[in-house]
Amino acid sequence: MDPFYAVVRVIARFWIWFFFERVEVRHPERVPSMGPVLLCINHPNNLIDSLLVGSVLPRKVHYLATAALFRNPLIARFLVALGAIPVYRKADDPDKMDRNMEMFAACDEAFGRGRLIAIYPEGATRAEAHVQRIKTGAARIALGYEAHAPERLTVVAVGLSFEARKRFRGRVLVSFGEPVAVSAATPPLDGLTEVDSGRARALRSIVFVDVKTGTAGLSTIQRRIRDCLAQRRVACLVIESGP
Q: What is the CATH number of domain 3-236?
């Protein structure tokens, strides 16, 4: 962990301690201590979600963040220093969607160096108690890397459950699901091309967190990860267009 990230993490831990009465963390040991890892996290509480996960894990977390945050030069320098990777969303600027190839390349490079990346598969923060429809990004990142680096990547689902999202001194639960080796759940691919986009779209539920049921929802995550990665069929889910 680099010094700058370590300092920011200490500050984040202080604010989490100050803002919440209690933070319960379940099974953080399920996140491998080394090697490439993809965390799939539900996103109920904006920046707090990133502060929570980053503060409870000893490893540096490289977050995927909307490219809109990088428009301000000062914020962009701060995010780059933290290892954040920009994602170009259709909702922000549909004309820049092709630049997501840079995002996939950056993820591959980070995984190649044995780093940990975190993604919010819903695509945006959601106030609803249940996780909403999930985008295909997590599946495309996982399968794309697995295509040329088999038997390396591990996927871990993370569930965040708040007693009350905006309540000061409230309580929050951070639950880590059992690690899933992508190589053990899906046959090898020769490459993720446009032909594979339908299969990746079918895998958009690589993580599904029911924050109302707490850790029980993590069982659903594990089942969906294994089922969808193993089948790799459009019939696995109802197809929804979009990145």
A: 3.40.1130
Predicted local confidence at residue 90, as pLDDT: 76
Is residue 106 a contact partner of residue 83, using CB atoms and an 8 Å limit? no
Residue type, 155: V
Q: What is the pLDDT of residues 205-235, one digit of tens each?
A: 444 433 333 444 444 444 554 554 554 433 3
pLDDT in tens, 6-33: 999 999 999 999 989 888 898 899 999 9
Query: How far apart (Å, rounded) are the C-alpha atoms in residues 2 and 115?
Result: 13
CB neighbour class for 158 (10 Å; exposed up to 12, middle 13-18, buried from 19): buried
Cα–Cα dist 149/229, whole Å: 16
**Is the torsion defined by CA of 146, 154, 152, 110 positive or negative?**
positive
- Residue 23 near residue 104 (C-beta atoms within 8 A): no
Q: Is the pTM of this model over 0.70?
A: yes
- Distances in Å between the Cα of 58 and the Cα atoms of 49, 54, 192 are 16, 8, 32
Q: How far apart are the first and last CA of the chain?
A: 31
Contacts of 74 (CB under 8 A, 6+ apart): none
Which sequence spans correspond to the domains of the chain?
Answer: 3-236
Tokens of 170: 């409230």
Two structure tokens written together for 15? 């604010």
Q: What is the number of other CB atoms lying within 10 angstroms of the CB of residue 160?
A: 19
E strand or H helix at 216, and its extent? Answer: helix 216-231
pLDDT tens digits for range 136-160: 788 888 888 888 888 889 988 888 8
